[in-house]
Structure formats: structure tokens, C-alpha cells
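Blackboard transcription, Thursday session:
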Amino acid sequence: MAAQTVASTSNPLTSVDLGPAAALACRECGHRVPLGPVFACEECFGPLEIAYDFSAYDTEDLRKRIEAGPANIWRYAPLLPVPADVAEKPNINPGWTKLVKADNLAGELGVTGGLYVKDDSGNPTHSFKDRVVAQALEAARVFGFTTLSCSSTGNLAGAVGAAAARAGFRSCVFIPHDLEQGKVVMAAVYGGELVGIEGNYDDVNRFCSELIGDPAGEGWGFVNVNLRPYYAEGSKTLAYEICEQLGWRLPDQLVVPIASGSQLTKIDKGLQELIKLGLVEDKPYKIFGAQAEGCSPVSVAYKAGHDVVRPQKPDTIAKSLAIGNPADGPYVLDIARRTGGAVEDVNDEQIVDAIKLLARTEGIFAETAGGVTVGVTRKLIENGVLDPTLTTVVLNTGDGLKTLDAVAGTGLTATIRPNLDSFREAGLA
Amino acid sequence: MAAQTVASTSNPLTSVDLGPAAALACRECGHRVPLGPVFACEECFGPLEIAYDFSAYDTEDLRKRIEAGPANIWRYAPLLPVPADVAEKPNINPGWTKLVKADNLAGELGVTGGLYVKDDSGNPTHSFKDRVVAQALEAARVFGFTTLSCSSTGNLAGAVGAAAARAGFRSCVFIPHDLEQGKVVMAAVYGGELVGIEGNYDDVNRFCSELIGDPAGEGWGFVNVNLRPYYAEGSKTLAYEICEQLGWRLPDQLVVPIASGSQLTKIDKGLQELIKLGLVEDKPYKIFGAQAEGCSPVSVAYKAGHDVVRPQKPDTIAKSLAIGNPADGPYVLDIARRTGGAVEDVNDEQIVDAIKLLARTEGIFAETAGGVTVGVTRKLIENGVLDPTLTTVVLNTGDGLKTLDAVAGTGLTATIRPNLDSFREAGLA
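(Written on the board underneath:)
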């Protein structure tokens, strides 16, 4: 592992202002190091995450401060690793997306306890990735990076390109050289460097790790590598928003997609923080993980009762979830079991059906990942695992316009000549 | 003209609750008729628009009521033809989209007075059409319609399909039968009837007018035909939001795209209302209209000093603006001249350049219509027509994901092998 990726106390960055973030703490051994652009523990190589000091907060003051904040993730600045004046800086400002009361979908699925869709297609580049990239960007600014980078095959590339453009960073995004033209355009339009790597996604990732350890990578913030501890915290805002939009209430059940598993673990972390801060009542909630059958390592491990996850080679239309070796898989298993949730998967046909179901009932056109969560919700209800009498929140993390191919079979319901006789013949009257 | 399209006092619908909407008034002769699903004056066939009774409002009470309202267009319910409890009803709830302070773009264009982009790609189906459809839907509900319909070649079809799905209406959208597959999918996914008409867009429109006058069309609300007076009012919310987001200030200059011209005229109406209600200071503002050169009937008329608009056959990549015979063209000319604005057009190459400029500087990926407004802004500054020392708001009314073809030439900036030597050779370090 390259030197830069491991925390070093010789470079403590003690002057770093990242608000309530106090240190980086190892998720495995608890070892703490100062805040910096590092992601792996120097003691045990476990993942580092942000440790906070929230001790000074008064619950009602904090609630008022949040409610008076901007209509984006920075309303939660007191709970994030960002400076207090973050909202004044140029960034893509994602979040505060709609929590849609999905009464029509509830009717179809037989949910009587209240069903909600947290619709993150409303973010600036139309996926939840804007949340994590916005967060990584602020860390990059504090650490003095001038280039924002990532490896990607889709949503992340656009989010990085857009945020870097707004904030005046150089961006350099690495993708497999043979990506579909549509995805290339979506990433290239923001005008940053877009570099095709001759190889597959694993080759791209390996190259990025190499670059971080090399002088050539100096000044480069890789949002999902050396900035990962900060980046990952962006997902906490989903938990905060859901609870605030429910009137500072915890939902009883949440259905969350699993790619690396990071999002699910951070949603759990966010809910725990709200409880500890007194912003919501301390009561149980269940978190359900959703995967595609064609990339279901966590679901398979859950069903087998395993604590570790066996890697898979992905083969699914849900490409934004297609991580065969999810880093946070074991943590996801722990959370699903601890909260009384579960992990389930659906196949490609069920994903497409669920995309259409959500669109038909709620007018929300979801990415394939949204088809996964809605499809899994349906399956969990049918199997008696998810309780339809409880308040349930289902995440849609992306936009159907980015995965049009999945529903390419959808088309005209009739073709007629431009006259009333033809209209009547078609049975449309 | 069919009987239903002309207001009849024999069916006064006196029990209609559309909030402050008091009547329909003819824009040409001023003749007033009761609220109903009609759009043309029975006296002169002029267009009907909503007349309001705002006499009971106290300015500061109204301001507080708006500011305490939901983060969507219904915060302005007191100024719209909707019942007071509109926010409780199922609808797509568009609006309250971001007003982005575009400092990077301002730098490139030399604007020193403050440049903002009102980014309506943040709406539920990613275009401003959600605003007008949401409004039409509420009128349809009040009038007892059960089917929501329209003729469309793009954004409108999706907006109608999505809103109808959410609100539990049947939808039936008419499109030319040979529309591109991608556009068909975007409209079809919501599960309503999607009917291809064997003919061009004019044939589709003609058929819809025929259907409205026929018993087969009973119970059908065509958002942009028999519900047009209500539908069109949705565009006022753009004016309200811009002013509120500026801190209840009028911008000095606005650059607005022209398709039918309705949006521009309603933005002017909205600004005038805010002035009369005392919500903003009474000061001059200039409205500039933006067209594509390949469909520039209003721009041509403006430059020739004409009061009437000569129809054109559209040929431009800005398809969402490609209305060759814009109904509100004369009103647009009047507003541009009265306010000291102008109407200008840009060609397809300039549109593409402007899409890339906006993406590169602000991380906003605009539809071709957004390329038109940004491109026209640049041209107006270069020509000394738009004053760069004044506060300027440019509208982006749609999303680049819907018009990917326009920037299909955008691609990789480099292709390398997955190693550092190749990276250095490419000059990326």
C-alpha cells in the first residue's frame, strides 16, 4: 500500500477546519489519527471514518439551526465534516430532494402504514452521487487539492465533472475506454479531462491507486479513494432528510440499495446520530438491503448466514449497483441483522417491472437501481419479511433517463390515423 | 371553432374554487366569462387568460404566507388559479428549482452585475413543463375531467404522463407515430395511453382540436388546449421564484426562451403582479427573448420592426423551441419593446457551444433550449444590447440528458494504457 494512503501522525494537519469532524477513526481497531487525505488505518489497514465532536450541541438550538438552513445538504453542516460557512462556497449543492408520499404504490403493494419514496433523481446530476461528491469536494478544498478525480463507469463521472466545474477545480475522470457513447457524453460535457483506460474497470481502479502513490498524483483528490472517509459521509444526509421530512420522526423500515454497501452503513450512522442528538425519538428501525440477482454477494451471504461476502462477477442491468466485491458488505450484514432487517435481491425482469410500476403509480422514472429497491420491497412484502403496516421509506438513487435501455421495450399503446373514426376503432374513446 | 372551445355563460360553473382566480378575461377585447374549460373569447376569438382578485391581500401577511409554504410552486398558491389546499392534493409538485449564482459564467461573459441561471432541469421530469402541467392538472380536477391529454413531441408528454400517474388520472398523449425511440420511451414509461398519429405534428394538433369538439373527448382535459388559460399561468411561478430567491428583488434583465412565447408573457405578468402587490420594489426591468436561428419568427419580426410574426418552417436542433407560428409572438414583441429588452437568435453551432460553456463553467448540463438562452446572452453582450453591469437572470428550461444528440461529438480527451508512463506521455500529470 502506498505511503500516502496510510495515516501518518507526522503530518497532522492540525489547522484543518472541517467543522465538527474531530479525527479519523479506524472502523476495525478504533485507532484515531488526525484529519487528512487518508483512508486506511496505519495499524490494521481497516477503513478510516470520521469521528465527530457533537458535545456542544443543544438539541433544540440544533434543530432550529438546521430548519433555518438552505434547501440542500448544507442545512446539516453542523453534522458533517465541513466548515461552518460551507454554504457560501461554490459547490453543486445537492440534496433536500423530495420525499414522495407514494399512496398509489402503497395501494398496489398493500402497504397501509405509509409508504414513501426518497427520490434522489432530483439532485443536480440526477443521482445520489452528487451528495458524496459535494462532500469530497469540500475536503479537497480544505486539503489544498486542485484536481478532483475518480474512477467511474457512470453516475460518479458526471457528478465529479459537474461539481469540479462549479467549484473551479480541474477534474480528471478515468473510465474504461470502451464505455457506451451516451455515458461518455454525459461525463465529457462538463469539459474536464476524461481519460479512457485501455482495460476494464478493475484496470482503471488499479491505475488510480498507483497514481495516488506517485508524485504525478500530487494535488489530486480521488473522491472515492483518498477522500473516501469524507465522501462517504455524504450519504448520512439521506438519513437526516428522511427524518426531517417525516417531521423529525424515524421511519420504521428503510429499503436501501447496496453497491459497495457504504450508503447503507452511513444511513444507519446518520439515524444513530439523530437518536443520540435527541432530534428523533429513540425507537427501533429496520434497514433492508436491496441487490440485483446478477450481482448479489451480500444477499447471498445474508441468506446463507455468513458474516463475510464472497465476491461475484456482476451480470445485471443494474450497472450502478454492480460491485462484485463490496467493501462494506460485512457491515451491511451486521446492520441488517442487528436492526431486524434483511437483504434480498431481484432479477432483471423484476427490476424492469418495478421501474414501470413506480413510473405508472407515482410518476417517478427511476434508474435500474430504483427498480431494484422497489422490486425488493415488493418481494419482501410478498414473503412476509417487510411489515406493510409500518412506515416504510424506499430509496430511488438515480434517474431513468440514464438507463433508458432498461425500458427500451416500452412504446406506443396504439397507432391511429388523424381522425375520430380511427380513434374510435382503436377503442380509445 | 367547436362549441366547447368558446366560453358560454349558460354553463357558468359558479361553484368552481380556484382560489384567487375570479374569471377568464379576453386578452384582446377584455370580455370576461366565468371560469371554465375554455380558451377562446366568444366575442372576438382572442385568447382567454385568468383574471384575479388579489384585493384582500396584505403585503407582509402574503410574504410570510409564501415563505412558510412548501418548497414547490404551491408556496404561491395565493397567486395562482388553484384551491387554497392545493398542496394537500396528489400532484407532481414542481418548482422551487435552484437559482444558481453563475460566477464562472459571468467571468467568461464579462458580466459584473451578477449573473444567475434559473435551472429548471431540477423539476420532476426535468423541464419547466412540470410547472404548467401541474397547474393544468388542478384545473382538470376542479372541472371534473378524468383524462389528462396533450399533443407533444417531447418534454410535455413526459410531464403529462408523470403528473397524471401521481394524481390518479388516466392519461392519453398524442405524438407523431415516427418519433425517435428514446423520446417514445421517456413518454411511455409512465404507463398511460401513448398514441402515435400517422402524420406530422400539425396533424396531431389538428386531430386533438377535433377530439375536443367531439363527444368522444368528453371528460378530457387537454393541458395546452382547453386547459390552456390555467396551464399557461404555471409559468408565472418562474418570475415569483426568481424574485424571492433574489431576496424579493426584481432582476434588471431576464433572458427567456421563446417557443409559443407564452412563458415569456407570463413571466412578465408575474413580475407585474409582484410589483402591484408590493412584494418587490417598482423599478424597471428588461426582458430579452431568445430563439434558435432555425426557428426565429419572433426574432426576425423584432429586428424588422414588425408587430406581427410571419410563420417559419422550423429547422433547428432546439426542438423544444421549434414552434414556427408562435401564438404569443405579438405579445412577446410588445413586452420586449416596452421593457427595453430585445429578441435575438443563435445558430445551431452557437447553441452547442453555449451548452458546453454552461456545463464547463457551472456544471449545469442544459437542453438545447438552455444553449439558446446562454448563447443569446453572450451575443447580446457582445453586441452591446445587454448591459453586463446589471443583475441578469438566464433561464435553463430543460435537461441535457434529453437532447444528448446535440453534444454527441463530445468525448474522451485522452486514451491511455493503465500505467504511469502512459499517463505521463499523455501530458496529464
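Lecturer's comment: Residues 276 and 282 of chain B are 8 Å apart (CA to CA).
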